[in-house]
Amino acid sequence: QVQLVESGGGLVQAGGSLRLSCATSGSGFSINGRGWYRQAPGKQREWVASFTSGGYTNYRYSVKGRFTISRDNAKNTMYLQMNSLKPEDTAVYYCNADILNGSTWLYDYWGQGTQVTVSS
Question: What is the mean pLDDT of the chain?
Answer without folding.
Answer: 96
